[in-house]
Amino acid sequence: MIGKIFWNTLLFSPVFVGVTYIVSGSAIATETTPETLAEGRKEKANVLEKIRRYSNNDIGQVNSASQLRDVSPSDWAYEALRNLVERYGCIEGYPNGTFRGNRAITRYEFAAGLNACLQEIEGLIAASADEEEGKQQQVAPEDLETLERLVQEFQAELATLGTQVDNLEERASVLEENQFSTTTQLIGEVVFGLGSVLAGEDVDEGEELDEVPVLGHRTRLELETSFTGEDLLFTRLSAGNFPQFGGVTGTPQGEIAFAEGQVTFAQGEGNDIGLEVLLYSFPITDSSEVWLLANGGAADDFADTVNFLDGDGGSGAVSVFGTRNSIYYGVGDTGIALRNELGDNLELSLGYVTSEANEPSPGNGLFNGPYSALAQLVFTPSDSFNLGLTYVHSYSQQDTGTGSDLSNFRSFTDEQFGVGAVPTSSNSYGVELSWQLSDHFVLGGWASYRNATTLSTLGGTIERGNLYIWNWAVTLAFPDLGKEGSLGGIVVGMEPRVTDSSINLPNLRDEDEDSSLHLEAFYEYHFTDNIAVTPGVIWVTDPNHDNDNDDLVIGVVRTTFTF
Predict the structure, then answer these.
(1) The CATH fold of domain 184-364+374-562
(2) pLDDT score, position 99
């Protein structure tokens, strides 16, 4: 249809009342007289009539073997089109705005380029017809002759191109009439999980656990809305019923990443659908972007977690600990964030997020309740190497849902002494690394240290003091293992552990006496672009960092549907 519109427009364009020809790169002005006007009209009418005949031919399928040959840089047509492109700037997309003459192209690629030049030259002809504005024709007569010859030789390809464009426009029209929204894209992810504790004991009761397989799901519907093409209003609805195994093991170690409620601040419980995330991001400069986190915001929304295995539970690592450095989990859920590119190789992320922003009571609200402030630099000297440096300052928001009970100090004290009985502040420091050594191997890992300080003695019940908490991991990723798009992964590390403490807890341990290891392996196999099945196993030695506890082994098979 584009070809038809062009030819019809060209056929009925006004003839020229003043003409300037570009011949061999120099401008030669002709005198405007009745005789030259008549000759110009006659010549132009002849050219347009010839082109009209070529465009209106009833052309069938390409039936000549020569018509199927690629157009080589040595062919006259190739050189002719290259000259037209360079002279009139017909084709955009090349860095220097010229036609690359270093490779052969198919006849249909050539026809597309020729069609672009025809439209460009038609525009010049139409513009030059306005004598009152002093516009003059900028098309050389020999170029029109060249176009005649090119159109005649490539008329079959031009006709096919026009048919293809017609078909595409018809399909686009159907999509526009039936699309979900002109501003919103709907994205869905459904995870079916089959899992079981294969070995271990309840660390609280010391009783051996039964092998009880469970089947559950996590379902997410995401609406991505843009009003300007550069901003994003992100809405996520979620529901699920896959259980947290910590309810029977007595420890958050080895927890499954897609367990409902485990990934930071999910709101839905059971199969009740809930608003999990609501945020809006928009650019303020070419290199800076702002996030307004209204509900369910998390550090990974605005800060790069620098882990190749981070798939937020639906892909990648199957455990919470293996998904990303635990330093990120304490940050949520309402606030503001900024990400700024400092040149080509450095990125700065800043965020202030609080969990009680909607509570208008003393000790809560946007600035008086529990909060976290994050600052992160990510250094990317190449596409294959990323290094992150992360700092988080928190007030009563340092629990991560990973590691020992004691390392999740607020939850630990809430259970022992009452909710909010022991406020704390903390400073956390983390380093993250991802290094793609080849197309099929990525080395990664992280380490973080947290210094948490108690801000109350509970009327002299405990001493004010500090907790020193460490965690680390080494990750191995194997992209395209066995099949393009599939992924193998191994995680070896230590979940958060209190290595030292100056707090005297009555009748309770002050620090984690032993050190356990988190060992994880999984293989994510993609049957299609939209269906992936991931068997995985998690082995935790000395759960709760206590060698009196039996090793914990959890098996899971995750099936992820995306649409």
Answers:
(1) Porin (2.40.160)
(2) 53
